[in-house]
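Q: I have 72 residues here and want to know how they pack in 3D. Can you give me a structure?
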Amino acid sequence: MKKKILNPKKYTPECRNCEKGKILPDGVNVFCAKKGIKELNGSCMAFRYDPLKRIPKKAPVIESADPADFEL
């Protein structure tokens, strides 16, 4: 039975997040153990999601609070 991605809507199959792929020093391509050199956004049937390779989005900037907002 094929293993499923944790949340298929959030994590699309991309070579940059595959456990078989290694990002090359040029930062544009990935070396896949199965398929050779592929693009970062490419994918294949050998895709296996590796959550440790995912780069999280940056946290949004929170505006500073005004002391008047906390007065009753």
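Q: Anything worth noting?
A: DSSP finds no helices and three strands in the chain. The CA atoms of residues 1 and 13 lie 18 Å apart.
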